[in-house]
UniProtKB/TrEMBL annotation:
Pfam families: RelA_SpoT
Organism superkingdom: Bacteria
Source organism per UniProt: Microbacterium lacus
Domain RelA/SpoT per the UniProt entry, residue ranges: 61-197
Alphabetical list of SMART domains matching this protein: RelA_SpoT
InterPro entries: GTP_Pyrophosphokinase (IPR052366), NT_sf (IPR043519), RelA_SpoT (IPR007685)
Protein name, as recorded: RelA/SpoT domain-containing protein
C-alpha cells in the first residue's frame, strides 16, 4: 500500500486502526471489489457456454468490516506478524471477498479450470487480474472440522493510483447450492476462530454437512447422466432404452433437401458465423448450445430437418472438420487437424484402441482418460518431462499440480501432440496419493503406479484380474 494509506501504529487503539482502515477502504478496497466483480463476470461470460452460464452466480461480495478485521488482527496467529497497520493487507488475505454459487460439483471443477488459465501474480508483470500463487484451498477435498466445504482462491486485482497500481487480494469462495445452504442455515461465520459454540450444535451442523455432501454426490451423478444423454443427442443416438443410433446417411448434402425445414437456412447461417470465428477445436455440444441459446430449445429435436446436430453441422458446413470420440470436436475452418486427434467418427472403444476394462473402469473412476493408447503415452511422456523440471516433488499443492499440468500441455503442444489438462491432473493426483512422486520419475514408473491403482479399483469393482492385468499393461506401458 502507499505511504499515505500506511499510517503505521504500534498501539492497540481501535480508533487509530479504524481511521487507517476507513481510508484504505474508501481509496482502495471498494474499487478492488468492484473491479474484481466486473472481471469475474467477464471471465465467466467468456468461458462458460450461454446455456450453462446460469449455473454460476455471484451471490455476494463485501469489504471486511473494521470491527471484524480488528478482532482478527488480535488473534495470535496474525498478531505476531503485524507490527504496523500497513502490514495487515500482506498478512490477512480476505479484506475483500466474493461468493460464487454453482449448481454441481462438476461446476466447481469447471471454475477451477477457468481460473487455472489465468496468469499467476508477479510484481514485475502488470495484468488486471491474476491468481495469487499457492492460494487455492480445496475444502471439498479436505473439509474443515466443522463440515464446511468450498473452493477458495485469491485473485489479485490492480487498483490504479496516481503514482502506481496497487495490488489487492480478493478471496473468492465457490460453493455448491447445497453447501451454500448449509452455510446459511448454520451461520458458518459462528465457527470463526475465537468463537464458542455448544458441542451439540457443532455435532448437528457437522451431521447436516455430511448429509448434504452425500446429496451433492447424488446430484453430480444425475448431472453426469444428463450430460451423457445430451451427448447422445448431439451425436445422433437415441435416448430410448437400447441406445440405438440414427441410421447413417450416404449423402449428407441431400439430407436437408429430402426433409425440408424452414429452420435449416437460418440455423446454417448462424452456425457458419460461429465457425468463422473459431480459434481452436470446440466440442460439438458447446456449439449446439450457442445455437440453442439463440433460437430456443425447440430446434434441438430436428436440427433443421437433419435429425442430429452432428449431421446438421456436416450438412450446413461441409468444410468443417468434425473429429474425435463422440460427440466430437469441430475444428477451425481452413486449419489442419492436429496429428493425434482421432480423424474418424467412432470412439476409441469401437476401434479397439480402448481396452474394455478401461471402458468399464471409467464408470467408477472419475477423471480416468478414455483415450487411445497413443494418447495415454503422450500424456505420460509430457507429465514426466514437466516433473523432471521441478526440484521439490514431496509437497505439491493444488497450485503446483495446476502449474505442472499447464507445463505438460504446453510442452506437448510444442511437439505437435494433443495433451489435455484434466488427464494430466488425474495422473498427478493418483501419483500423489500413492506417494510416488520421486526425482527419478520415469514413464515406466508413472505407468506402473497407474496400473497398480486401476487394478485395485478394478478388482474392487469385480472385474476379472487376468483381464485387468493384460489389458492395463498393454494400454499403459511404454514400448
Amino acid at each position: 500500500m502507499t505511504d499515505e494509506l500506511a499510517q503505521a501504529t504500534n498501539s492497540d487503539s481501535y480508533s487509530e486502526f479504524e481511521t487507517w482502515y476507513s481510508k484504505l477502504t474508501t481509496s482502495t478496497l471498494h474499487y478492488a471489489r468492484e473491479s474484481a466483480l466486473r472481471m469475474l463476470e467477464e471471465l465467466l461470460d467468456e468461458n462458460v457456454p450461454p446455456l450453462d452460464r446460469g449455473r454460476f452466480r455471484v451471490t455476494g461480495s463485501r469489504v471486511k468490516s473494521a470491527q471484524r478485521l480488528y478482532k482478527k488482527t488480535r488473534l495470535e496467529k496474525y498478531r505476531s506478524k503485524i507490527s504496523l497497520w500497513s502490514d495487515v493487507p500482506d498478512v490477512i488475505d480476505d479484506l475483500v471477498g466474493i461468493r460464487l454459487v454453482c449448481n454441481n460439483l462438476s461446476d466447481i471443477e469447471v471454475f477451477s479450470e477457468i481460473v487455472s488459465a489465468l496468469p499467476l501474480y508477479a510484481e514485475e508483470i502488470a495484468v488486471p487480474m491474476a491468481v495469487e500463487p499457492k492460494s487455492v484451498r480445496d475444502y471439498f477435498a479436505t473439509p474443515k472440522e466443522t463440515g464446511y466445504r468450498a473452493y477458495h482462491v485469491n485473485l489479485v486485482v490492480l487498483v490504479p493510483r496516481l503514482s502506481a497500481h496497487v495490488p489487492v487480494r480478493v478471496e473468492v469462495q465457490v460453493r455448491t447450492l447445497l453447501q451454500d445452504g448449509w452455510g446459511e442455515l448454520t451461520h458458518e461465520d459462528t465457527y470463526k476462530p475465537g468463537s464458542v459454540v455448544p458441542e451439540w450444535i457443532t455435532r448437528m451442523s457437522l451431521r447436516m454437512a455430511e448429509l448434504l455432501a452425500a446429496v451433492d454426490s447424488i446430484a453430480q451423478d444425475v448431472r453426469e447422466q444428463l450430460d451423457i444423454e445430451a451427448a447422445r443427442t448431439v451425436a445422433g443416438e437415441s435416448s430410448r432404452p437400447g441406445g440405438a443410433k440414427s441410421a447413417p446417411s450416404t449423402n449428407l448434402s441431400t439430407v436437408a433437401a429430402s426433409a425440408p425445414n424452414e429452420m435449416f437456412a437460418p440455423l446454417s447461417a448462424a452456425l457458419n458465423s460461429i465457425l468463422k470465428d473459431l480459434d481452436r477445436p470446440r466440442p460439438l455440444a458447446s456449439i449446439s448450445q450457442l445455437l440453442v441459446s439463440q433460437f430456443g430449445s425447440e430446434i434441438a429435436p430436428e436440427w433443421g430437418g437433419t435429425g442430429s446436430f452432428k449431421t446438421f453441422v456436416e450438412s450446413a458446413a461441409p468444410a468443417a472438420m468434425v473429429t474425435g470420440p463422440p460427440p466430437g470436436y469441430v475444428h477451425p475452418l481452413g486449419k489442419n487437424v492436429p496429428e493425434d486427434w482421432e480423424s474418424d467418427w467412432v470412439g476409441a472403444a469401437e476401434r479397439g484402441d480402448l481396452p474394455p476394462v478401461v471402458q468399464e473402469l471409467a464408470r467408477y473412476e472419475r477423471g480416468l482418460p478414455r483415450v487411445s493408447r497413443s494418447r495415454v503415452q503422450h500424456t505420460i511422456e509430457a507429465l514426466v518431462e514437466a516433473l523432471r523440471r521441478r526440484e521439490d516433488l514431496q509437497t505439491l499443492t493444488r497450485d503446483d499440480i495446476e502449474l505442472i499440468a499447464r507445463e505438460a500441455v504446453d510442452s506437448a503442444g510444442r511437439a505437435g501432440r494433443l495433451v489435455v489438462r484434466p488427464h494430466v491432473v488425474y495422473m498427478l493426483t493418483v501419483l500423489r496419493k500413492a506417494d510416488a512422486l520421486t526425482p527419478d520419475v520415469s514413464a515406466i514408473s508413472v505407468a506402473a503406479v497407474l496400473d497398480e491403482h486401476l487394478s485395485a479399483r478394478g478388482i474392487e469393482s469385480g472385474l476379472p484380474e487376468t483381464e485387468l492385468t493384460e489389458q492395463l499393461s498393454e494400454w499403459l506401458m511404454p514400448g
